Each structure stands twice: as structure tokens, then as C-alpha cells.
Amino acid sequence: MAAERVLRFGIAGVGVGASNLLGGFKRNPRVKVTAAADLRTDAVEAFGREFGCETYGSVEAMCKSPNVDAVWVSTPNQFHAEHAILAAEHGKHVTVSKPMAITLEECEAMNQAAERNGVKLLSGHTQAMLAPIRKMAELVHSGDYGRLGMVHSWNYTDWMYRPRMPYELDVSKGGGVVFRQSPHHIDIVRLIGGGLVRSVRAMTLELDTKRPAPGAFVAYLQFEDGTPATIVYSGYGHFGSHEITFESSYRPPMMPRDATPEQEAALKEARRYTGSGPSETRPEEEPPWHSAFGLTLVTCERADIRQSPHGLWVYDDAGKREIEVPKAESRGEPEFDEMYQAVVRDRPVVHSGRWGQATHEVSLAIMESARTGREIMMSHQVSLPEGAV
Question: Residue range 334-344: average pLDDT?
Fold first, then answer.
């Protein structure tokens, strides 16, 4: 029997995002890191030693390597479009971290580059790829609990008080929680609701003048079939969603609210690859339960469904029961598998560039609705592919 093909990845940007993927690369025998690119010479060289891979000082140089099949774009948001298009123009498949880009025009250019060059473009790294969320969507689309009634996805974190580089709080560069966190919520509710959002009404909040970017938002989404959904996010770190999900212990923000710029920069560096601290989003030790992006609650005709520590809780006429979902994935593994299936087995990409563009349209609509006070109508939505869940 012939050995199964290994998909060779080049990593564009060896920062916090890349650090969160390391476990997935090490666990999955069907993917391998063969190259990495970063402007920080010390970090990329250390990465190269750990993975025995090629190292480059630019994404363009890495894209020229014959030893790379696909590029994972994990550079700062303002470079996503440039680097994804570079990879596509060099014949590489592309996975791009959220948000897909800054503007819809950039998303369109990325999609056209992928389509023109015959490569796969996956807009990934969102919490909709968590196994319990995929199982929740599967149950909803099965029809076993009747028609979908509504979806709510809420999350309270300390995002605004984690160490940030200046561009992470600059809206023009894709900073703030709408650009950086709403794609998680939007992908979750779109996966469950079938993909086609009709309109968006929203408000954003800036509650700390020292952190000049949207730090919270409330959005009301209506799907084409009339299904309503709400997404709520706060990154101000007073209340944490873990209080109403699986844990009850208070966890203070990662960074003191009065930290100096120098202290913040040092804390940020400690959380990047080669840094001395834990990852920004990944604990030092993996907990035995599934991770959850806050509370997602689905209401169908005959049941309510939400995440549990080991899968899902279903509340129906018979009472409350837990459906266990195997916990066998590290961060990034769903994206690796989806890209592998698309490239090696020619299966459709569910979280395609067109899906990502539709998600980004909703993110931009949150900002526009907050600015204008109007309901924003959608025009770039795509439905969930048949058999995707």
C-alpha cells in the first residue's frame, strides 16, 4: 500500500497565532511544517531548529520554495491579503487566519487569486471548527429537533487587557474586538443557521480611553429564512464567560490595567514564539474538557442545545442529557484536516474564501451599523455546502 501523502505547510508569521498551532502540527501525521517566514530572525531560526524546516526572512521568498504545498498566513491582519495572494500566485494552497482581511475588496482579490491559480483558499482558525460546535450544527441540520428557532452566542473575556501591539488596537489595521473576535461568533451562528445572513443591526462600545478601539459589541443578525441570532462580546475583563460555562473560579486579566507601554511590550513578547510566558489563548496544560468560545445556545422547536464540558447538553421534553463528543483535536487540526481533504482527496472546502468573505461582510456590517445606526443588508453571503456538517 502506498504511503499516505503528507501536506507540507509553510508558516507565514511566527507569532502568537503560530504558537497556538504547534500542538496540532505535532499531532497530525498528515501535515508537516517544512518552512517558516518571519521578520524576527531569532524567532524564525528557533522555529526552524524545532521543526527541522527551511527558514526565510520574507513570505515571498518562502512561497518560492518547492518544498511547500500550502501556506498558513498568520501575519498581522493588515498583511493577510498581500501574503495570501503571494502564496496563490506561486501556486500554493492557502489557509488564512481570521479576520480574512481588512476590506471586502481585499477578500475578493484573495478569492480571485486562488480561483485564477487553481489553488484552495481556506478562511479558518475560528471557533466554529470546534468539534462540539460542528456537532451542534449537525444536530440542528438533521431536523431531529424540528425547525431552528434562534441562536445566541455570547462571550466575555479580558481581550482588551491582554498585551497588545499598537496595530492590534488600530481599527484601520484590523484591530479591536470586532475585527479580531466577531469572526468566531459569526462563523458559529452561520454554521448553525446555514450561512445566509440577511441583515445586521449592531452597536460597539469603547469603554476605556486608554485603549482606543472597540472593546465590546452587541449585534442582531437575521437570516434569510427569518431566523434571528444575537452575538455579544466584551473584552473588558471584569466578568468572564467561564463563570456560566464550565468553571466558576475568577481569573484576573493577563495584564495590569495600569501597565506602561514598556511593560505591555515585554508581556507581549513573552507570549510569542520563543517567549517565556504561556500562549495568549492556550493554557500551559490542556484541560480535560472541550474549550468553549463563551456560551452558545441554540433553540429548536423541540429542544435547546448548548456546549457541555464533554460535548453538548440537550434539553428536551425528556429532560437534560449530555451527548459526548470525543476530544481528540489540538488547535488547528480541523483546518489541517479540511485543507488535506480538499487538496489530497478533492473534497470541497467548507470554510472557503467565499465563506470567509461572507463572514467578513458581517463583521464590517457590525462596524457600519454602529457608526450609522442603520440596519445593514448583506450582498456577499453564501450558503453552507451540502453535506458540510
Answer: 88
Q: Looking at the structure, do residues 120 and 217 belong to the same domain, yes or no?
A: no
Quote the CA–CA distance of 372 and 245 in Å, as a whole number.
34
Q: Please tell me the total number of residues recorded for the chain in this structure.
A: 389
Is the separation of the CB atoms in 213 and 171 below 8 Å?
Answer: yes
Q: What is the 3-state secondary structure (H, E, C) of 24-85?
A: HHHHCCCEEEEEEECCCHHHHHHHHHHHCCEEECCHHHHHCCCCCCEEEECCCHHHHHHHHH
- Give the separation between CA 176 and CA 135, rounded to whole angstroms: 30
Predicted confidence at residue 382, as pLDDT, reads 96
DSSP output for 165-194: -GGGG-GGGT-SHHHHHHHHHHHHHHHHHT
Q: What is the DSSP string of 239-307?
A: S-GGGGTT-------SS-TT--HHHHHHHHHHTSTT-SS--SSS-SS--SS---SSEEEEEESS-EEEE
SS3 content of the chain, % helix, strand, coil (to 5): 35, 25, 40
Q: What is the pTM of this model?
A: 0.91
Q: Is the peptide bond between 99 and the residue preceding it cis, with omega within 30 degrees of 0?
A: yes
Q: Does residue 282 surpass a pLDDT of 60?
A: no
Domain residues for 79? 7-126+331-352
Residues 202 and 115 in one domain: no
Examine the domain organization and report whether 119 and 236 are in the same domain. Answer: no
For residue 373, what is its C-alpha cell? 445606526
Q: Are residues 210 and 266 in the same domain?
A: yes
Per-residue pLDDT tens digits for 112-131: 999 999 999 999 778 898 89
Question: Same structural domain for residues 81 and 49?
Answer: yes
How many domains in the chain?
2
pLDDT of residue 286: 63
Going through 70-137 in order, the beta strands assigned E by DSSP cover 70-73, 93-97, 121-124
Domain harbouring 77, CATH code: 3.40.50.720
